[in-house]
């Protein structure tokens, strides 16, 4: 279902979108008033305390965060105290929470707040986003909870509630879908943005759980599409992503006067297209060593002079080639020898075809995109 259509789920039996929106907001806010957890950082609207708690809660559970939060606030009660501290002092208090880049950014951000904003967290979303360690979620959470701004704070909990409420099958792992969801949530935020945003997050944390959501006690049970269709446990959709591994690749640009050697690869990855001799390795040096030994097989000797003439990268679905281009200039006679040897080997089980072509004629050969890109580099 498209995102625009999802919002129109509200229009039923002549009921207007606005009326449905208000009903949903009221149900959620009434529930939140009674059922929200009493947490130390919710006792005030101090942006400093809210910001610290939000950073600590990223990738860490509430019960683990609470003692850290108390100790941190006791040591650095204001943003000025945090900005004055050394990085070592900050990291010492963070020890055990993990993801230490969060602590380093927190420290940098405190210094930026003191230097650029006299210690006050900016109220403008775009300014907040420029601070170290502040992304769309944290900016939305701090600005809505501290200053009651109508800005969405969409975390994993909210994405889950949203997907179920609107029967959305959009992959929540995709940035464009997350952005579209943020836009729709923004349209739903009432004047009391502070409580509404927290209520959505709290509903996801306490009731609309990843497994076995507590629909029977959920305030939105009568409006929820996933509940109506009994597909709560199928949502949200988050497709598994294959990790894209970075692989160093050495590429040989072998020249002989006016021509360059190209090879036709038999691997599935390059699909029988033309390219240049290459070698993958665990490191750049290992790739270069492999290329040298591969060239030794083709040329009959290991080339002595390898000059780096450029770099390029190509992203496949499961790996990224980080290519270093090595130029090798051969004397004319060697080319004849290579081709003689090549013709001999061809009758055996040589896996690659070889051709010598001028630079201008290279574009006439069907080449894999990874290699076409290289034509711009040398
Ligand atoms: S009814 Fe169930 S699935 Fe729907 S929002 Fe509530 S807890 Fe989540």
Structural notes for this entry:
By secondary structure, this protein is an alpha+beta fold. It folds into two domains: 3-234, Hypothetical protein, domain 2 (Endonuclease III, domain 1, Orthogonal Bundle); 245-376, Nucleoside Triphosphate Pyrophosphohydrolase (Alpha-Beta Complex). The chain has 16 helices and seven strands. The chain has helices at residues 3-7, 17-35, 47-57, 62-75, 79-84, 87-94, 100-117, 125-129, 136-147, 156-165, 175-188, 193-206, 225-229, 284-299, 332-346, 369-372; strands at residues 245-256, 259-264, 274-275, 278-280, 307-315, 319-330, 353-358. Strands 1, 2, 3, 4, 5, 6 and 7 form a seven-stranded mixed β-sheet that branches. A hairpin with a 2-residue loop joins β1 and β2. It is elongated, with a radius of gyration of 30 Å. The two termini are 47 Å apart. Bound molecules: iron/sulfur cluster (SF4). Iron/sulfur cluster (SF4) binds at residues 161, 164-165, 207-208, 213-215, 218, 220-221, 224, 226-227, 232.
Helix content: 40-55%
* CATH topology-level fold name of the largest domain: Endonuclease III, domain 1
CATH architecture of the largest domain: Orthogonal Bundle
Q: Briefly, what CATH class of the largest domain?
A: Mainly Alpha
- What percent of residues are in strands? 5-15%
Mean pLDDT: 88
Count the domains.
2
The CATH homologous superfamily of the largest domain is termed: Hypothetical protein, domain 2
Terminus-to-terminus distance = 47 Å
Query: What's the total helix number?
Result: 16
Q: What is the makeup of the main sheet?
A: 7 strands, mixed
Structural class per helix/strand content?
Answer: alpha+beta
Structural Rg = 30 Å
């Amino acid at each position: 279902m498209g995102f625009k259509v999802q919002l129109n789920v509200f229009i039923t039996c002549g009921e207007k979108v606005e009326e449905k929106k208000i009903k949903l907001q009221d149900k959620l806010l009434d529930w939140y008033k009674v059922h929200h957890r009493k947490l130390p950082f919710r006792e005030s609207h101090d942006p400093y305390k809210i910001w610290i708690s939000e950073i600590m809660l990223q990738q860490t559970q509430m019960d683990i965060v609470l003692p850290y939060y108390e100790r941190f606030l006791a040591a650095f009660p204001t943003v000025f105290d945090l900005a004055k501290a050394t990085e070592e002092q900050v990291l010492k208090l963070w020890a055990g929470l993990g993801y230490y880049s969060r602590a380093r950014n927190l420290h940098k951000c405190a210094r930026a707040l003191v230097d650029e904003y006299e210690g006050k967290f900016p109220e403008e979303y775009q300014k907040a986003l420029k601070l170290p360690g502040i992304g769309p979620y944290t900016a939305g959470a701090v600005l809505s909870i501290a200053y009651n701004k109508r800005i969405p704070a969409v975390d994993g909990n909210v994405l889950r509630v949203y997907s179920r409420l609107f029967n959305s099958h959009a992959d929540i792992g995709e940035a464009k879908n997350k952005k579209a969801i943020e836009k729709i949530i923004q349209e739903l935020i009432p004047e009391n943005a502070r409580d509404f945003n927290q209520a959505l997050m709290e509903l996801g944390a306490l009731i609309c759980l990843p497994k076995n959501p507590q629909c029977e006690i959920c305030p939105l049970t009568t409006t929820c599409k996933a509940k109506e269709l009994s597909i709560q446990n199928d949502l949200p959709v988050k497709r598994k992503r294959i990790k894209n591994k970075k692989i160093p690749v050495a590429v040989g640009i072998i020249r002989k006067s006016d021509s360059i050697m190209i090879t036709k690869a038999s691997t599935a990855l390059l699909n029988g297209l033309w390219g240049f001799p290459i070698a993958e390795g665990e490191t750049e040096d290992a790739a270069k060593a492999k290329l040298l030994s591969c060239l030794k097989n083709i040329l009959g000797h290991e080339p002595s002079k390898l000059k780096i003439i450029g770099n390029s990268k190509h992203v496949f679905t499961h790996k990224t080639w980080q290519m270093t281009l090595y130029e090798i200039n051969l004397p004319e006679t060697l080319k004849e020898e290579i081709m003689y040897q090549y013709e001999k080997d061809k009758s055996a089980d040589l896996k690659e075809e070889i051709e010598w072509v001028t630079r201008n004629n290279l574009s006439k050969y069907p080449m894999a995109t990874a290699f076409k890109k290289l034509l711009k580099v040398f």
